Request: fold
Amino acid sequence: MTRQVKLRIHWTERVAQLGLVAIALLLGLAMVAPLFTILAKAVESPDGSGLGAFAAYLASPALLTSLWHSVWVSLLVTLIVVPLAFGFAYALTRSCVPAKGIFRTISLLPLLAPSLLSAISIIYWFGNQGVAKEFWLSLGFPGIYGAQGIVLAECFATFPHVLMILVTALRLADARLYEAADALGTSTVRKFFTITLPGAKYGLISAALLCFTLVITDFGIPKVVGGNFNVLATDVFKLVIGQQDFQRGAVVALLLLTPAALTFLIDHFVQRKQNSALSARAVALVPRPSKRFDTAMTAYCLSIAALMVAMFGMAVFASFAKLWPYNLAPSLDHYVAGLVDAGLGEALWNSIRMSAGTAVFGTIIVFVGAYLLEKTRGLSGLRGVVRLMAMLPMAVPGLVLGLGYIFFFNAPGNPLNGLYQTMSLLVLCTVVHFYTTGHLTMVTALKAIDPEFEAVSASLKVPFYRTFWRVTLPICLPTLLDVSRYFFINAMTTISAVVFLYSPDTKVAAVAILNLDEAGETGAAAAMAVLIAGVSLVATLLFLLLGKWLEARTQAWRGASRA
Reply:
């Protein structure tokens, strides 16, 4: 009898270990192999002088110019966005500003649409026929196309990403520190520089690194408003799509990977040094009303929110304008031109299919992978490798990943060649592109579950899969829904990871926007961007409703503990 029980436990552990091996193989094929293929392509040369050719490409003046452009534009956007987002986050967390929920919702609008939307809005505001062109020229700028347009559009696109980190950092404050400072007669300014900033420094560093990485790896905005101002991301696209120069494209891709990887390593090093912001005896900081300060913060939030609404609203308005700027009467002509005349209704449907597939399969893969890492035993050496591969996508730009997929999956000798330009490959690429955030979210949720559940199950000879199904899965359902929503929204708006991988039958809406803009159909491009934002908004609302329903059906125990 005892022997049969041991065999049963051994069998279930073997299943878990096989599952972990499967996750490792999947990440290896979908992430590591394409990156190694890029490296091999970059040093490949018919005469065997691959490294010499690599060095020659790096010495190219045009390439170095693009590198410099990418770096200084990314730094400038970071220097602008981080202070602005910090002020907004400070107002939301440390003041009694009214309607905080509305301000927070408005600040998240850029997440619902591709970054191309901000570039298109910039054109309608300050372009050759923009409504505020004269104002823009009066500031001394030669035009909107070039570095100035990229910086302006990137500030709008990256603001919500930076804000989310800073809001989290500023919420983690111990009120006792401020009470002690008040008792000692410390001035408000000194409290800010001696308590607030040191407490939020790790969040500030992470936000700055994230902003820099997002800008230097973004492709859509420089492509639309960059003009003749070349950056690394557009260089990759031109070399691969325009010139079919895959080797040089691989070299530039590796160059684009370097700053993203460096910022990831710096952030990882910084996070290791971070100490807990709150102790078990910490007291939550509740803002005190201050008429003058709250009025100033309200005015600041209104200013930022107005800019957000103006940027987002211009794209919506222009998408309905009949003939910009001569006939601004409401019309559906641009939507008809995009969905019917250009046949892009299928592209929008493809985006929805890809997003749904990414949300379903991405969530399953991430959850199973995180569960096997955190809640099962064995194969300790492989676990470290899987953890490393799960973190790797965060340091890989979408363009680099997409280019690696071309080299790897389009290779004639690869048995997976049949996946190339299929919807399945688009889903796989998108899952891998956003894997790290989903993985970290699920690991955080699983670590919050007491290991005693698994210990008790093991002592009662209950198989791990039964504990998984009856205990772990119900507890993690809200987090699963959040991860699924994250995958869906990002899949709807992504362009860089899939711009190399689609076929005429699998073209997605974000890529269609790029093609419309290149054809001079800016109005139709704006309409498609608004449609993507609309689908993202509807999906968000549906996820919220589903979350409420699941909470009522499966999370009653949470309410019972508070009663």
The chain has 24 helices and two strands. Confidence is low (pLDDT under 50) at residues 1-9, 276-282. The radius of gyration is 25 Å.
